[in-house]
Amino acid sequence: MSAVLVLVGVVSVVCACIWFLQTARLRRLINQIPGPPSVPVLGNAHQMISGPEWYKRVMEWGRTYQQEGIFKLWLMTKPVVGVATAEKAEFLLNSSKHIDKASEYDFLHVWLGTGLLTSTGDKWRSRRKMLTPTFHFRILHDFLEVFNQQSQVLVRKLQGHVQHGPFNVFQDIALCALDIICETAMGQHVSAQTKDSEYVRAVYRMCGLLEHRMRAPWYWNKAMYDLFGPGKEHDRCLKTLHEFTVKVIKERMNNFNSKRAAAMLSDATAVNGGDDDKRANSVEGSKGEKKGEEREVEGVSRKVRLAFLDMLLYMSDNGRALSLGDIQEEVDTFMFEGHDTTAAAMNWCTYLVASDDKVQDKVHEELDRVFGDSDRMPTMDDLKELKYLECCIKEALRLYPSVPYFGRTTTEEAKIGPYTLPEGVTAVIFTSCIHRDPRSFPDPDRFDPDRFLPENSSRRHPYAYIPFSAGLRNCIGQKFALLEEKSVLSAIFRHFRVKACQKRDELLPVGELILRPHKGILIELTAR
Asked: Which stretches of 111-202 are assigned E, i.e. beta strand?
């Protein structure tokens, strides 16, 4: 037994020496970058704690190294470089080379495969080109009915809280967002707002498990994760998620009408030559369209609403362009990216508007000007007129970006300012730190929607505000998200006067995959 232990010790020492020699240049370059002190073996891994303290620590690092705009961390033997200013982020986000997601995203592959979020290279480029038409404004127009219907379910639930004291609204808004993405992505009614769902529980639990594993190097090995961590729970959630989406896809395939999808995509890409990017980031209306208007394309009425899944089925060309597995990974990606992000954004915006009476008065004035005393559902033209509400949403995303950080892997040696990043290094862009740079946003902790009026934002650094990332890998669904957030928030503030019941320092943001308040959002409601 002692001989075995000696042998293991000798092998370990030899392996450590080999690693030390092979990584000498990498360590030298990384260690030229400033960063918090590390400890032997663990590096900074012991500081990767869960809960509010992690996010607080990240923000402190951002402030400490704001002048350099960059800092390093060691996760045991793995270097991670944090990027905390717009100038440093621009190099990575504006690059056509460094578009690979960080290796930590590999843990998402078991759920999402290599869909649009996690793929790279030629596969990512072809998928991005293929999927862009599915987010065309004219297709999003047809989802407005879903946004409105689910917003009304939310309003009815909230009416039960009127003048009944403080309550946590976070989950109510989150379930509304989940109902919306299930119907728009899969054409599936899960009624998350009104009944319990195993799939809904699995979605939320899986997000938490993945985030925790990403920051825990001791769980990166699957055997260790299963033996000492929640690996078995992870696998149970994964089974539930995949079984549900496969079932929905197969059912949809059996009832699929390719003519409908062809009409929808043809109608969308025919407008502006398919160039949807010219519409910028604001939610625009379609002028001249009458309410309830139908147009015939190849004999098919556009009044029939399709889900993203239908368009994927059409693009699949009977499995020749997209297999069942390809379709599943994109549907799972829509589900992962499309509900938690918007739910968090709407919650933070609700809190911030509710905590400032003057801002809320301006929101109500704008809503009253657009809708008057009517109870009608908003149209695209109505939402286009809600310019101040859009400023509130953008300012909320500045203070509390739904995705507080995202990672890239350098595909070749990269120079960022005076520092050199070796090939294969994980660079993490800390959105939250960039958004609170006082050079771009004076008095950065203050909630001020006027920052996003055109006259106040035109001279800002183009990478100072990146809630949907930027560059080639910016969020393909940002117009969808802004449209949904405007729809739901306008419904809430049309019906209620909202009072925030927490101070800002009581929110304790938790910077996981999605930025959430540790104890939810406590509000009181009064009917308008």
From this structure: 167-168
